[in-house]
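Example 323, ligand magnesium ion.
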Amino acid sequence: MHILGLEGTAHTLGVGILDEEGNVLANVMKSYKPKEGIHPREAANHHASNMLPAINEALETAGIVREDISLVSFSQGPGLGPCLRTVATAARALSLALKVPLVGVNHCIAHIEIGRLTTDCSDPVLLYASGGNTQVIAFSRGRYRVFGETLDIGVGNMLDKFGRMNHMPFPAGPEIERRASLAKGFVELPYSVKGMDVSFSGILTASLNSSSPLDDLCYSLQETVFAMLTEVTERALAHTSKNEVLLGGGVARNKRLRGMVETMAAERGARAYAPPGPLCVDNGAMIAWTGYIMYKAGCETPLEKSAVMQNYRTDEVDIAWRK
Ligand code: AMP
Ligand code: MG
C-alpha cells in the first residue's frame, strides 16, 4: 500500500509518499520564498503552480505510478486559508480521480506522529517551534493537549521578522544562528513567560529598537527565546510525568535550541529526540503517515467534511489510534 500526503499550510508545498510500514519513499518540498512577509495569496499561487511537478517528482522518486496510490491525505489546518484551500483542492481531485479514500490531517499532530515514527520516543512532550506555530503538546486522556503556546506570533515568524528588518535573507533562522556564534556580548531582552505560555512581540520590538551590535542581538535573541521555550517544556514534562521530549518545526533545527533542551532533559533524567531535518520542517511525509494511522483507526474524511480549518486546534482531534 502507498500513501500520498500533501502539505501546504504556509510557505512549503510538500508531497510525501510512504508505504504502510512507514518507509519514506519520497518527500518532495517546494518552498515559496517571500521578499517581505508571507503573502498568503502568493504562497497559494506558488503551491498551485508547483503542485503537479511536485506530485510527479514524488511518484518518480518513489518509483511508482499514480494508480499505485491507495490513500490520499492532506493538511486540513491550521494554516493560511488560500494555501490550505489550494492543497485541499488537489487532494480532493486526486482522491476522486484515483477512487481512493481521503483523510484530512491536523498539521501539528503530524509533527508529533512523524517524530514517534522516526525516533525512539513513544510518548513525548512535543516542543513544536516553527514559523507560524509555537506550542508545547502532550498526549493526555485521549487527546493531544496544548500545555503552553505563544500568545502572539510564532517564534520562527519573530526570528524571520527580526532578520528581515536587519536585511537578512528569508528564512532568517539559520543566519541568526550563524551570527549568534560571532557574538561578543549579551544584551538584556524582555523574558516573557506567562504561566505556561510565551510571547514574542515585546522581545521583537526591544531587539529592533536596540542599538547593540547585530551579532550580539542575534545571540541574545536566541538565548532569551530558547530559554523561555525550554522552561515551559520542562514544566510540561514535570506536570505530565513524562520522560521524553520531542522537537519539531523548523526552529527545532537550531543547534542551540537542541542543546538547551537536551541539557534540560538530561538534568531531569529524560531524553530528547528530533526527527531528521527534512522530517522536522513542514513536509508531506508526516501528513502521509498521520493520514495512514488515522485511516487504520477508522478515520476518513468524506468530501463534505473536507473543508479546510484555518484555526484547527490540536486538542480538537480525537486520537483514535492511541490508547
Ligand atoms: P516551518 O514553519 O516548520 O517550516 O519552519 C520554518 C521556520 O524555521 C522559519 O521561521 C525559519 O526561520 C526557522 N528556522 C529554520 N532553520 C532554523 C535555524 N537553524 N534556527 C532557527 N530557526 C530556524
Ligand atoms: Mg509545521
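Summary: The chain has two domains: 2-111+279-322, 121-274.
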